[in-house]
Design brief:
Elements (H helix, E strand, L loop, with lengths): L2 E4 L8 H11 L3 E3 L10 H10 L12 E4 L2 E4 L1 H12 L6 H22 L15 H28 L19 H16 L1 H9 L2 H9 L4 H7 L22
Parallel strand pairs: 1-2
Antiparallel strand pairs: 1-3, 3-4
Length: about 250
């Protein structure tokens, strides 16, 4: 049975981290909200879980994954569930927990990147909070982005599985969903803050090498080149406002 992924149809957003794992593993899945409502898919199918009174354990928001009778929400929890099934985590419990911790930290970075263009409220337009966004983005570029990328660089430096590897890994010597997620975060940062991110990557060569090397995976490369990969746009988490790039 195919996995059912529920996420907004027009943006990459947090659902993209799950898509990357499913695509890289060659898993069978349906991107439900991108389907046709006449076929029982589309947004009505997603909202049935979010708003339906008969859903015993309703997700708070998308993304969420349906696997048979299981409904798993929150990106990190979905990947924690899928990782062993898709062979995108090491076998040991300690390593699996470490991958999960990395994913949660990257989720924090994603929130901070998002809040540069919505620092006051998600319900307000960017133009209604532009002055605050300029201030928040400046702090993000100067303080927060360097701190997060330096931590990722340290994780890569201290991973013994990277000995003599051209493409470093976050945990162990094989590709994990943490690698895919760091790749996606860097992609988003390069879209939203190209000048600041390129400066930071010069100080984080292992992060840059991982970002450059992860698309060497054939399945992932095919996905990234396909129409299934939604382009970045100004409705998603990572948004390109040149004035916020300093």
């Amino acid at each position: 049975m195919a996995y059912e992924l529920h996420y907004w149809p027009g943006i990459q957003g947090r659902g993209e981290f799950v898509r990357l794992a499913l695509e890289t593993a060659g898993a069978s899945y349906v991107d439900v909200a991108r389907g046709n409502a006449k076929d029982g898919a589309g947004l009505p199918a997603m909202f049935r879980y979010l708003e339906g009174g008969d859903v015993r354990r309703p997700p708070f928001a998308c993304p969420f994954l349906v696997d048979g009778k299981k409904v798993i929400a929150q990106t990190a929890a979905i990947l924690l569930y899928l990782g062993p099934k898709l062979k995108l985590v090491p076998a040991g419990e300690a390593d699996r927990l470490w991958v999960h911790q990395i994913q949660l930290t990257l989720a924090d970075l994603v929130v901070e990147a998002h809040d540069t263009h919505h620092p006051i409220a998600g319900g307000l337009y960017y133009e209604d909070q532009k002055a605050e966004s300029l201030r928040r983005a400046g702090d993000f570029r100067r303080e927060r982005l360097p701190k997060f990328l330096a931590w990722c660089e340290a994780v890569l430096e201290r991973n013994p599985g990277n000995a003599a590897r051209a493409v470093p890994r976050m945990v162990g010597s094989r590709l994990t969903y943490a690698d895919l997620s760091l790749f996606q975060v860097v992609e988003g940062l390069l879209y939203a803050f190209p000048r600041a991110t390129k400066r930071m990557l010069r100080k984080a060569p292992l992060v840059a090498a991982l970002h450059a090397g992860v698309p060497g995976n054939k399945r992932l490369a095919a996905y990234l080149a396909s129409e299934r990969r939604i382009p970045f746009n100004e409705q998603g988490i990572f948004r390109r406002y040149p004035e916020l790039d300093g």
